[in-house]
Amino acid sequence: MTEDAREPERILVIKLGALGDVVQATGPFAAIRAHHPTAHITLLTAPAIRDFLDASSWFDEMWVDSRPSWRDLRGWLALRRRLRRGRFDRAYDLQTSDRSSLYYHLMAPGRRPEWSGIARGAKLRHRNPNRDNMHTIDRQSDQLAVAGIAEVPPPSLDWVAAETARYGILEPYVLLVPGGSAHRPEKRWPVGSFTELARRLAVRGMTPVLIGAGADVHATGTVASFCPEALDLTSDTSFAEIVALARGAASAVGNDTGPMHVIATAGCPSVALYSFASDPALCAQKGPDVTILQRDMLSDLSVDEVEAALKLD
Fold this sequence. Notes:
By secondary structure, this protein is α/β, with parallel strands linked by helices. The chain starts with 9 loop residues before the first strand and ends with a helix. It has helices spanning 19-24, 26-35, 47-53, 73-85, 98-106, 136-146, 191-203, 217-226, 239-248, 258-265, 280-283, 303-309; strands spanning 10-14, 40-45, 61-64, 90-93, 114-117, 124-125, 173-177, 207-210, 231-232, 251-255, 270-274, 290-294. Helix 5 (98-106) links the parallel strand 4 and strand 5 (114-117). It folds into 2 domains: 3-146, 3-Layer(aba) Sandwich (Rossmann fold), CATH 3.40.50.2000; 165-309, Glycogen Phosphorylase B (Rossmann fold), CATH 3.40.50.2000.
């Protein structure tokens, strides 16, 4: 068989996490594609992430992880068959969780791909003892360096295209992200503070635009009910549309949640709010103009300080 007739190299990339984690993995995605320009690359991910990344040029195929429960023997066997049938030459586990590491062992016995991750026994195991103290972006770059990928670009959403005309937003506008994980209320700036900020923006002649989904509806709905000038887009934006909205916004402010990673990476001047519950040194939003404001208790963070950080004057 000639070299040109050989099957292309088969690569598996695993990224199962939340929106913010996926946005921060866009640099590694691009680096992996550049390192394997002719390979057939498969991404194993979550359904919503698959839809978001479908417009990128990094992957030839995207699989949705079935995430079988620990007691679902049939589900695990089906996942094992799928992984083994993929005949992957190399795998980049960018999730590096206990679950994703188990996938390496699930592919035994017999030939397994060269595995970049933290799974025991992996050929390209990331062994840096300081990995848990590194920012996500730095940790993934260090992991890929072990696999021979020396250059990893910063996160980028330049490939995303979407229209926002249907919203009829009056410019200038500021994006507000008052929601967050329902089971982590300590990560949220008080809704009353977001409401007061929205009112101040309206007085300035700026439209407050509320971004959120699902469990965020209480926070966004409260702000909208007390600030009639606000535009509530809760559950009415795709990830791509959030990118497009960020490109046109004067600024943005929000809690440490996925949409703020999208907004900051898209290039919007962004103010991200952190409590004791998360460490920006490990997971802060990245972009050309990001300001981090942190208090142990976000209720101690004044509206005056947040408004000043938006740099709207």
